[in-house]
Amino acid sequence: MKANQTGYSLQLSSGDEWFLCGDNGLTPWLDKLASIMELRQKAQNGHPKIIFTKLNHGVKGEKYPPLPYFSNDEWICHDERIVRIWKNPSVPDVICEVRNDICHEIDILNMGISLKPIYQKAQEQGGLPLHAALAELHGNGILIAASGGTGKSTCSRRLPDHWKALCDDETLIVLDSQKDYQAHPFPSWSNYLWKRSETTWNVQNSVPLSAIFFLEQAETDEVVPVTEGQSAILINESANQVCRKFSRNLKGDDKRMLTNQIFNNACDMAKKIPAFILRAGLHGKFWEEMEEVISHLPEPVSTGK
Questions:
Q1: Tens digit of pLDDT for each residue in 163-194?
Q2: Domain range holding 86?
Q3: Are residues 140 and 208 in the same domain?
Q4: Among 38, 39, 63, 295, which residue's beta carbon has the most beta carbons within 10 A?
Q5: What is the pTM of this model?
Q6: Gap between the Cα atoms of 111 and 113, Å rounded
Q7: What is the biggest distance separating any 2 CA atoms in the chain, rounded to whole angstroms?
């Protein structure tokens, strides 16, 4: 099974670049994924590849990936049921088997789960995916983090014009070459899953992360600082809300390793990024409370791509 000579490039402000490609049977699916993330088609460029292929319904626990790629026994299969991800410690590329042409819902779920190698690489370098809306204000990347149904998407829509809402559900935080945190907007897959909109997200765009606001529903608007310890716990919870979809089938040492990695990264982030509780009502101007706090933050560091 041969990968196409062309595919899509995904660059992050960490310096990592991925080349997304696949076999011909998955071309429409991959084109849709690239469109949602506003990726451009390119020729193969020597960067690590994520090679997409149709799920092989073979024997569970089989030893090799579906491509005659490298004939050794070091391939490890991470089975996410509708997606199987093959990795090899001696190979920079990843092979991702996806179920395709079953139904619209499965296609969209596949897209979100297939980003696991990208998130995993960011985590290995100190970053985290967070269940948070991302907005930009005067060069500052601002997160509004909350569990589903709490109102972060509503808050994102209510921000006035001098704010720039970048995403309302998932944000990938990476460390750049200066060890500063940069925030990339990632898709709200539920919009496509439930056919609410066909918004696209420029995932390669990033802004320097300046503050995190953890949203709570309230009668009146208020911003309350949190301690570093509280922030670490809240960041850890937010990251786990995203990573849960990648870790359902992990057990033993693999699960402990992921849990420890997320917690350690959350602790490191809490040391550098100011965090607050944002209590927001339905009719107030909660952003004014945020702006007052943001006005006293240090100037943002180097901008991302």
A1: 999 999 999 999 999 999 999 999 999 989 88
A2: 6-114
A3: yes
A4: 39
A5: 0.91
A6: 6
A7: 63
